Amino acid sequence: MSLDFWELVLKTITDYELLQKGDRVVVGVSGGPDSMALLAVLRSLKEKYDLTLHVVHVNHMFRGQQAREEAEFVAKMAEKWGLTWSIFERDVPALSKEQGLSPEEAGHKVRHEIYRQVGEKIGATKLALGHHADDRAETILLHLIQGTGLDGLAAMPPRHGWLIRPLARVNKEQILDFCKRESLPYRLDPTNTEDIYLRNKIRLSLLPCLQKEFNPQIVKNLLKLEDIIWAENCFWENLLEKNLPEIMLEQTKDKIKIDLEKFNLLDLALKRRTVRKLYKMLKPEFQNLGYTHVEKVIEICKNKKGLQKFLLPEQVLLKKSYTYFELIQTDKKEKRKPEEGLYLIWEIPGELLLPKQQKLLKAYYSAKPPRLKGDFFKVVLDGDKIKSPLIVRTRQPGDRIRPLGLGGTQKLKDYFINRKIERDVRDLLPLVCQENEIVWLPGLTINDDYKVSPGTKKFIVLELVDREYV
Asked: What is the pTM of this model?
């Protein structure tokens, strides 16, 4: 099996031209078996390709001392193998709450910002990550469940820009066997075996069920689908690269100006890809722009009205005139409109889509309280105190909250200030209310009056999940 591992890895590197002579490679290493196997592979190929390897580890500060020990382990292994390394600590839980992101989103954002910064500093030509075949299959299922386009079904190709995945065709079992045969040490993250995240549920429950009950070759079939879509995407990207100069009027570091008439003549599929491409040109480190925002840009561009503005994620401003439109990276934070007076009725148990944010609220009853991460994106409340329907809305003047453990109420505005929630984010946060009382601020806190107590007999779980791009 070890031979199969090497054959697949070398074939992947050759087929997708992942490495060239003299490459300077940033290697993302968590300390787990996948990234340690990746590092061992690249180290073995170091002389053949004249590689310069730089190890990067990011401590997300979720697991205290255990995470610090993993960082020390990675640094020691890099030293032992004669490689340069960088260790970073980032308070991802705090970032998650400040920016209204899920822990996974915040962690992804932090890691890739660091990879980019280190890459620029050392003049790196490649970023190598340890994603393998099972990861790719899980991601396809994850995106299908949450809602996605073609990009989401080919989100982990062996190569994308400067990012390479040499282990893309080997599975977890082959990686573990390789580590065993090569006596490679590694560390295990215990949260990977807990069903607190949707990805974990797919890995631990859904994928094994599909393999056992429907098709043992499901992973291979999903990867074939990804390869097909990846090739189709490459075709569209090449077409886009040819068309872009014809519609672009101006490009600077912070602004892109597009001919409105020529843009509106494009096929819808090409329009969508153009909008995503333009956004990526301004925000290369940001994940793909969601469907709702892309459609909003296209809708505004079709509108016959004159000047219109719309603020996209990460403070990118769409400014549309009669003959052109611009995407502008703004320095000052322009005030976003709330979700146009968001006010939705949430029948529980059940699901509710927040259309502007492409987030999904889920509510279900549980016989016993589930294990929670503690980030307040998933909470459990006293089911006897929660009555259907709930109201989901944005904040209003005079709102008050009774935060968990505070022992009293306070103005919602003061609570946001104390938690250092950015001003423009406050108007976007969904509040889950029972009549006029706030019972849950997703990602922040719950109402102390609705918490589970020793006498609770009925439990209801509320969860906010991403519909696109985890």
From this structure: 0.63
